[in-house]
Design a protein that fits this description.
49% helix; 261 residues; homotrimer; nine-stranded mixed beta sheet; UDP-N-acetylmuramoyl-L-alanine:D-glutamate ligase; alpha/beta
Chain lengths: 261, 261, 261
C-alpha cells in the first residue's frame, strides 16, 4: 500500500490541472447536496451543471468532460433519467463517478437499482464503508446515509469490488482507501467534521469526476480529489470551531488550493 | 404558564441526549430548506436522511428513530409519498413532526392536503402563528411562507389544536409557545434574524423530531429543540452582523452546544 | 449609455423600498440555487416562497407582488407548471423575471421551451452573455451554465432582444448592461467570485423581481438589483479570500445595505 498526500507534486499538479482546463462537469445528485457539490466544483475551477431538466440528460452527459451520479438523485428524478445519464456517458466515453449513497441502509428496491448502474461501468465508485460493503453484496450496515463501519474494514472489499467491476473504488473514512483492484493507495488526513457537513461526501464524488478528467486516469483522479479534500479539511478545521463555519471554510480552502497550486 | 430555557438542566440534558444516542431521523421536506435541516441535525449529533427516493418512503419511516414532514415537500414529491411516510411512521410507532409551512397563504388545495395529514397523528405540529391559526380552521393570514400575526396571538389556538388533535403544538415567534392542550410552556429568546434565514423554521421541525426521540416525550422534546434553538440563535446573533453569517453561526452554535452539553 | 451605481440616490432609494414594502415574491427555480435565492430576498427585506407545490402555481403568481422563473426549475417541476406560473403572472399583471439559465449550452428541446415562455411577456430577462445571445437566436456558446462570451459582446443583442420582446434585458458580466431597447445602462463593479458561487446569478434574478415591484419600473428595478449586487459583492470581496466565505458575505452585505439604505 502506498500513501498519497496533497504535497506530493503529482497530486498538486493534478489538482491544479482542474483549474487550468476548467472542465464542464455534469451531475445528477440529490437536492440536499447539490449546492455544496456545485460550489466545490467551482472552487476547484470546474464548471458544473446539475439536474435532469428537459433534454439535459441526453445532451449534457455526451458534451460534458466528466459526469457524476449520486443515486439519491432519485428523490427528484426518475430511474430512467439516471440510467439514461449513465448509459449516455458510458457510450460517449465520458468518464463518470458513481456515488451509491445510502446503499445498504435497508431499502432493498433502491439498493437493487443502484447495483444495476454498474452495467454502465463507472470510472470510479465512491462511498463510505457501509455503502461499499453493501454494494459488493455484503451485509447491510448503514444507518440512513451514515456508515457504522470504519473505512479500514472495507479495504479488501474495495479491492475485490474494483477487480470485479473494472472501476476504481474509493472508500471515505478517517483514512481514505483507493483501489483499482491491484494497487491500494491510502490518503490520510481530513477532519472528523467532514461527517457532520451534509453532502460533503457527495461533493467529493463531484470533485472526483473533475479530477478524473483533469488527470486522464481514474486511480490518479480519485487520489487527487481525496488528497485535496483531506488537505482542505485540515486547513478548514484548524481555523474554525463549529460545523457551519467548517463547511464554509472547506470550500474556501479548496478555492485557495486551486489558486496556489 | 411555565418558562423554559436552555440553562434548565432538563433541557440541557435532553439536548445532550441527541448526541449521545445519535438517532437516525428521516424527513420529507422542501429543497430550499433540506440542506440546513440536515446540517442542523448533524450539528446536534443526529444522523439525517431526506427525500422520497425509490422505496425510502416505506422503509425509512419504519426504521428511523423519528420522522419529520414539511408539507412543502410537495414541490418535489407527490401527495402519495407524503401520506405514505406519515402513515408508515404512525403505524410503526415512529414519532413524527408535522411542519405545515405556508398553510393559510391562499392555496386552498394545499391547505386541505395538509389538514388531511392530521389523520396520522403527529407527535408535534410546529409552525408560525399564521400557519397554526389556519391549520386550526381560522382565517388565512399568511403571506407566502411568512406570518403576519405574532406568536402570542396563537397561544389559545395552539392549546385548542393540541387538545383536539392529541399533538403537541409549538408556535414559533419572538417568544415560542408550546402546548399539549393542558399545559403551555413559553420559550423566550432567539433572534429576529431567524426569520431572515430561509429554512430556519423548517430545520427546527427536523431538530424537534430528534429531540422527541431523545427525550421520549413530545412536549419535552419540543421544549428542548426550541430552547436550544433560542440559545444558539442568541449566541450566533451576538457575534455576527449580516444574515448570511448569522445562518452559518446558528449551525456552529448548535454543534458547540452539543459538544459542551 | 449611462452608468449607474449603488451610491446614486435613486438606486439606493429603490433598494430601500424593498425592505420598506416587504413584497411577497414567488419563484420557480432550480434546487441548486433555491436556498441562496431565498436568502438574498430575505436579506433585502422581501418575503420569498419557492416551488410548484400543489396549487401554489395557480394561486401564488396571482397573489404575489412579483414572480421569477429560472427555467432550470424543469429539473423538479414539469413544463406545464412553469408555463402556468408565467401565464398566471402575465394575466394577473404580476411583473415577472425570466432567467433562461443554460440556454445555448446544447440542449435544443430545453432551449425551445425557454423561448416559448417569451409569449408571456416577462418584465425582465436576465442572464449571462451566452444565454442572451442564444435566446435571441444567435449561436450557442454556453458551456453548461457558464458563459464563454464577455458581457460587452452582448450589448447590441440585449438591445435588439429588448426591442423585439418589450422586456428589459439585463446581461451579467464584468460590467452589467441593462437595456429597454432604446436606452442602455451600464452597472460596473462586482467581483469575479460571483461566477464561482453557484446560483449567484439565479439569485440576482429573484432580487430583480423584488426590485421591479419596489420601483414600479422594469428598467429601474433591474438597475437597482444589479447595482446593489455589485456593491455587496465588492464589499464582500474586500473582506474575504475563499469562495465559500465570499458567498456568505454577499448575503451579509445585501442585508446590511438594506438596513442602512
Amino acid at each position: 500500500m502506498t500513501t498519497a498526500r496533497f504535497d506530493d507534486s503529482a497530486v498538486r499538479d493534478g489538482y491544479a490541472e482542474i483549474a487550468r482546463r476548467g472542465p464542464f462537469v455534469y451531475g445528477l445528485t440529490n437536492y440536499i447536496a447539490a449546492n455544496l457539490s456545485a460550489n466545490v466544483l467551482l472552487a476547484a475551477g470546474a464548471g458544473p451543471a446539475i439536474g435532469a431538466a428537459s433534454d439535459w440528460t441526453t445532451t449534457f452527459p455526451a458534451g460534458a468532460n466528466a459526469v457524476w451520479i449520486n443515486t439519491a438523485a432519485l428523490m427528484s428524478s426518475d430511474e430512467d433519467s439516471l440510467r439514461r445519464v449513465a448509459r449516455t456517458a458510458h457510450e460517449a466515453g465520458t468518464p463518470w463517478v458513481l456515488d451509491p449513497v445510502a446503499v445498504g441502509a435497508g431499502a432493498a428496491e433502491y439498493d437493487a437499482f443502484v447495483r444495476g448502474l454498474l452495467e454502465f461501468r463507472p470510472a470510479v465508485i465512491r462511498g463510505n464503508a457501509s455503502e461499499l460493503i453493501a454494494l459488493a453484496g455484503g451485509a447491510a450496515t448503514g444507518k440512513g446515509v451514515e456508515t457504522t463501519v470504519d473505512s479500514s474494514d472495507a479495504v479488501s472489499t474495495a479491492g475485490e469490488l474494483a477487480a470485479r467491476t473494472g472501476s476504481v473504488v474509493a472508500v471515505s473514512g478517517p483514512v481514505d482507501y483507493i483501489s483499482d483492484g491491484s494497487r491500494v493507495v491510502e490518503v490520510p488526513g481530513g477532519d472528523v467534521r467532514l461527517t457532520r457537513v451534509t453532502g460533503a461526501g457527495c461533493a467529493l464524488g463531484a470533485l472526483t469526476a473533475a479530477a478524473v478528467f483533469a488527470t486522464g486516469d481514474a486511480l490518479q483522479g480519485a487520489v487527487v480529489s481525496h488528497a485535496a479534500y483531506a488537505e482542505a479539511a485540515e486547513r478548514a478545521g484548524a481555523r474554525t470551531t463549529g460545523t457551519g463555519s467548517f463547511g464554509v471554510a472547506l470550500v474556501d480552502e479548496l478555492s485557495l488550493l486551486a489558486e496556489s497550486a
